[in-house]
Amino acid sequence: MPTKINPKLTPQKLLPKITRLFELSAEKILAREKSWQPENGTPVFTVKGKYTSRGWTEWTQGFQFGSAILQFDATGDERFLKLGREGTRRHMASHVSHTGVHDHGFNNVSTYGNLLRLMREGRLPQDDREQDFYELALKVSGAVQAARWTKLADGTGFIHSFNGAHSLFVDTLRSCRSLAVAHQLGHVLMGEQDAKISLLQRLVEHALNTARYNVYFGAGRDAYDVSGRTAHEAVFNVANGVFRCANSQQGYAPFSTWTRGLAWAVCGFAEELEFLATVPTQTVDAAAKAGVQSWEAMLSEPIQTWRAGAQLEVALVEAATATADFYFANTCADGIPMWDTGAPNLHRLPANYLSKPADPFNAHEPVDSSAAAIAAQGLIRLGNYLIAKGDKKNGARYRQAGLTVADTLFSEPYLSTNPKHQGLILHSVYHRPNGWDYIAPGQQVPNGESSMWGDYHALELALLLQREAKGDAYLTFFGCVPK
After folding, report:
1. How far apart are CA 259 and CA 170, in angstroms?
2. In b/e form, how buried is each residue of 338-350, taking b as 16+ CB within 10 angstroms?
3. Quick one: 377 exposed, middle or buried, by C-beta within 10 A (0-12, 13-18, 19+)?
4. Is pLDDT at 45 greater than 80 in this prediction?
5. Is the pTM of this model over 0.90?
6. Cβ proximity of 457 and 372 under 8 Å
7. Could you tell me if 338 and 366 are in contact, meaning their C-beta atoms sit under 8 angstroms apart?
8. Residue 305 predicted with pLDDT over 60
9. Torsion of Cα atoms, 39 then 40 then 42 then 47, to 10°
10. What are phi and psi of 134, to 5 degrees?
């Protein structure tokens, strides 16, 4: 596999880089907030080193204030708690009730969820009114996200993207954390005639249908069926709920793999496995029954005693490991991927470019560091999950791969050390097909810029590793809910 996994890395060995990352992040968050004007829209990505907005959907504001909250979590610096807390209170309410996007987990768990988690951990003073405020926001957010529901021919369904009821995005998998938290807080979606709709069931069905339609398993589904490859979008006929075709909005083509979408899958499946392991068996079985019945014929690993929760775990592990293995095989030696595995000018790169560290300054196709930041966390979580389940060999391989990617990201040329640049992680790409990414004079492709999601996920990755290195509580998105 092209990614050269370093078997000797540990979170403790990465601590000096993590400390430096948070030192740099402090400067950059403060600089960004000083220049940001709310009336200009949410910060999305940098142009010439300064964060700017790009209207498409409002999906990055949670990362703006969530980054400040993570900075406080890591350093204890009260300035960032105030910034994240006040930003959440003043600007995030519209995101809680936003019916037009599939991004509730990104926006609201990153803000309200992180603040509630800090209160649960005793990092914030206990305040019952403030706690109720965070909990209510998270409950409503999960229900609003779950209401974006498209029913399929087999009776299951999925949360549709902002493109419309026909559209299943691979990204949404990780944003389903909003449904998970709302369910654990005891909430349901109320439907017609007061029908009580389980948020956990919708999460499970969405995850299974993402695996079924957005992930390939080498089973001959079409001429491009390579195990672990992902499609950004799956398209359905909404009149009868039948799958029609793969598609891509931000990738090069439906039958190439947009690597940030791949990263969302690696991370999303791993996180949902961690979450579902905390839910009572009987509850998981009830939520999973309908979804796994439509999956049963596709599972490659037989289950001795049929149980919906066991089938669900096999399906999600299979999807997580397939996508993780594809990431290994199609990523440069240092763990940084090109923006798309089928990008049209990859053939102009050296024939063995995957066996070398990525070159973000090449003249042909951009890399995407934000995909690496997302995937690294997923690889580490998948590795930890498998190790806990007794699969130490494979678990260690995924975990060390994630640490290898983190080691690269937390170093130059990806770590931004220029105090005049507001971004933290350089060489992120937003929307290559639309041509939205800034190309500097003298360069042929986008490089040297940052994104809100890339910076946020790098901080989340760093905090995960810092906590482990120091023996602190394991970081999870559902840590905001009492056990």
Report:
1. 11
2. bbbbbbeebeebe
3. buried
4. yes
5. yes
6. no
7. yes
8. no
9. -160
10. -65, -45
Q: How many CB atoms lie within 10 A of CB 76?
A: 10
pLDDT at 298: 56
Q: Which three-class secondary structure state does DSSP give residue 50? A: strand
CB proximity list for 302: less than 8 A, separation 6 or greater: none
Q: What is the pLDDT of residue 302?
A: 53
End-to-end CA distance of the chain: 40
Provide the 8-state DSSP code for 346. Answer: G
Asked if residue 364 belongs to a domain, the reply is yes
Question: How many residues are present in the chain?
Answer: 483
The alpha-carbon radius of gyration of the chain (Å, integer) is 21
Which domain range does residue 281 map to? Answer: 11-480
Q: Give the position of tokens 């931004």.
A: 416
Distance CA 380, CA 362 (A): 29
Alpha helices in 54-176 (DSSP H): 61-75, 78-91, 93-96, 104, 114-120, 128-146, 172-175
| The three-state (H, E, C) secondary structure of 360-412, written as one string | CCCCCCCECHHHHHHHHHHHHHHHHHHHHCCCHHHHHHHHHHHHHHHHHHCCC
**Domain contains 4:** no
The β-bridge partners of 214 are: none
**Distance (Å, rounded) from C-alpha 68 to C-alpha 112?**
12
Could you tell me if residue 1 is inside a domain? Answer: no
Which among 204, 228, 260 is positioned nearest to 376, based on CA atoms? 260
Number of domains in the chain: 1
Which among 449, 426, 424 has a CA at the least distance from the CA of 436? Answer: 449
Domain annotation covers residue 348: yes
Mean pLDDT confidence for 64-93: 98
Six token digits for residue 467: 């906590």
What integer pLDDT is reported at residue 55 of this predicted model?
67
pLDDT digits (tens, 9 = 90+) for 441-458: 999 999 999 999 999 999
C-alpha to C-alpha distance for 250 and 57, rounded to whole angstroms: 14
Cβ-contact 455, 4 below 8 angstroms = no
Q: Can you say how many angstroms the Cα of residue 467 is from the centroid of all Cα atoms in its chain?
A: 19
Give the domain CATH number at 38: 1.50.10.10
